[in-house]
């Protein structure tokens, strides 16, 4: 338990210090925000800080900070240290600067941010890559909450041949369509406070329960191989780097988050709300990841659930019901279901906004929004049917989702770095470059080795990953300096 507590101290103390530093580097001021200068009653709508923060938290926190840590904790107590450190210097910094740059640039969406701070080739690749990821997010975040609801709340079998499965999927699908098309303050802004209350009950309830129930958690200095679970052997056999950092996606870093902070950049009343809305909400997601990692380790060590990465969704129900009892467990499960649903709806909303901006499709008319949304939802439905009908469909879907989620962050780090060069902050460019270089190494090494990628042996994959990370940093430094020099000449 001591290592878990140390990790939480690192998370919250580190966030207070580094979050303040990020705010100092960006320099928020009192200029009018796009919520006022472009107010349209649809996407540009001034909303209160607490509501923006809550919406952003629910937008970014899908099943990643739950399923990821449940699988990642099999690597042992090292997870309790790597999650908070990566969160503060990587994920929260990524979310803060992505959201704030979009805010200052007029409420632009991420494709526009990438286009402005890179070149046409990078922008085109990003647009395609991001669109594919958002489609995957939409499908994954119908599949996972739907299956959890079917099997652990209603007691159905959750099979592809059961009508109940598709009815539950259909209900989620309809909600996504409504949330994607209608004004953000009419649907999302009103429903999310209720969802937020359920989420807080779930996360805080499990956290308190860890101590009340006295869950046995292993420390860094203990033996990692216990009578029931051999964390040390798992760590040695499964390539902690890069596998852990792909598995524990959203609790540490998620490229998907930048697409969500961009949405909130259109509803903020003041730039000074950015630290709470963007940085601190990612820290809360890190807390959720820590809680679920600890809960999973506890039930594994007690023998209440088999320590198997493939049983992650079953582990959720065991943790909830053992800690909070039958009724509280069901409410906590609802909190788990809320997370992906409140990410899936805005993932598809941001995809609609990005496509409409790129193709200059007017979205003021409901019929036009429905027309564009219909195309997007048909594609999501195709992916969902494949994932559910094929025996290996969801495993394939999840692996591509996890890898592409982390890879997308590399584009945001490029844009943040170039923005710093152009805005007289080049001395701070190490802030995006350190996590950017790390995840360039992680994602390239993973996909080069993975069976869903190029299936290259580990030794060669590590070499390729190192070379790719070095090239990534070198190209950013070269391009950033070039852009800064060009801007200085124009001035």
TrEMBL record:
Entry annotated with the keyword Glycoprotein: no
Occurrences of domain CstA N-terminal (ranges): 4-142, 164-291, 304-445
Transmembrane domains' residue ranges: 66-90, 123-143, 163-184, 191-215, 235-256, 277-303, 323-343, 370-388, 400-421, 428-448, 460-480
Keyword Protein transport: no
Alphabetic keyword roster: Cell membrane, Membrane, Transmembrane, Transmembrane helix
Topology in membrane: Multi-pass membrane protein
Cellular compartment(s): Cell membrane
UniProt xrefs under PANTHER family: CARBON STARVATION, INNER MEMBRANE PEPTIDE TRANSPORTER
Family per record: Belongs to the peptide transporter carbon starvation (CstA) (TC 2.A.114) family.
Record-given protein name: Carbon starvation protein A
Source organism of this protein record: Claveliimonas monacensis
Taxonomic placement: Bacteria, Bacillati, Bacillota, Clostridia, Lachnospirales
């Amino acid at each position: 338990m001591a290592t878990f507590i140390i990790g939480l101290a690192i998370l919250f103390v580190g966030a207070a210090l580094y979050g303040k530093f990020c705010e100092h580097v960006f320099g928020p001021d009192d200029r009018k925000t796009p919520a006022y200068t472009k107010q349209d009653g649809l996407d540009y709508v001034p909303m209160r800080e607490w509501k923006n923060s809550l919406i952003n938290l629910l937008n970014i926190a899908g099943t990643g900070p739950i399923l990821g840590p449940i699988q990642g904790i099999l690597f042992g107590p090292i997870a309790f240290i790597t999650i908070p450190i990566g969160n503060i210097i990587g994920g929260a910094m990524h979310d803060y600067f992505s959201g704030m740059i979009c805010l200052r640039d007029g409420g632009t969406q991420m494709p526009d941010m990438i286009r402005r701070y890179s070149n046409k080739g990078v922008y085109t690749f990003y647009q395609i890559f991001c669109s594919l990821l958002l489609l995957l997010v939409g499908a994954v975040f119908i599949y996972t909450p739907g299956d959890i609801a079917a099997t652990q709340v209603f007691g159905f079998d959750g099979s592809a041949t059961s009508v109940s499965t598709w009815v539950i999927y259909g209900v989620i699908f309809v909600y996504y369509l409504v949330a994607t098309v209608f004004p953000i303050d009419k649907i999302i802004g009103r429903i999310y406070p209720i969802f937020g209350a359920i989420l807080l009950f779930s996360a805080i309830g499990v956290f308190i329960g860890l101590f009340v129930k006295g869950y046995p958690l292993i420390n860094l200095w203990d033996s990692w191989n216990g009578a029931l679970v051999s964390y040390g052997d798992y760590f040695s056999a499964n390539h902690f780097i890069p596998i852990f950092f792909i598995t524990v996606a959203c609790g540490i870093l998620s490229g998907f988050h930048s697409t969500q902070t961009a949405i909130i950049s259109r509803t903020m009343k003041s730039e000074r709300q950015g630290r709470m809305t963007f940085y601190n909400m990612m820290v809360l997601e890190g807390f959720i990841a820590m809680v679920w990692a600890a809960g999973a380790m506890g039930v594994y060590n007690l023998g209440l659930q088999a320590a198997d990465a493939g049983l992650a969704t079953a582990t959720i129900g065991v943790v909830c019901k053992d800690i909070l009892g039958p009724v509280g467990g069901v409410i906590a499960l609802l909190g788990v279901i809320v997370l992906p649903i409140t990410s899936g709806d805005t993932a598809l909303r941001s995809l609609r906004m990005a496509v409409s901006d790129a193709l200059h499709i007017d979205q003021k008319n409901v019929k036009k929004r429905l027309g564009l949304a219909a195309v997007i939802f048909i594609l999501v439905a195709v992916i969902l049917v494949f994932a559910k009908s094929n025996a290996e469909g969801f495993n394939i879907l999840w692996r591509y989702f996890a890898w592409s989620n982390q890879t997308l962050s590399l584009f945001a780090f490029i844009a943040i770095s170039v923005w710093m060069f152009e805005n007289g902050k080049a001395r701070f460019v190490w802030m995006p470059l350190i996590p950017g270089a790390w995840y360039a190494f992680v994602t390239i090494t993973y996909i080069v080795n993975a069976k869903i990628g190029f299936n290259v042996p580990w030794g060669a994959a590590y070499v390729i990953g190192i070379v790719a990370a070095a090239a990534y940093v070198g190209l950013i430094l070269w391009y950033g300096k070039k852009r800064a020099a060009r801007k200085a000449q124009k001035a």
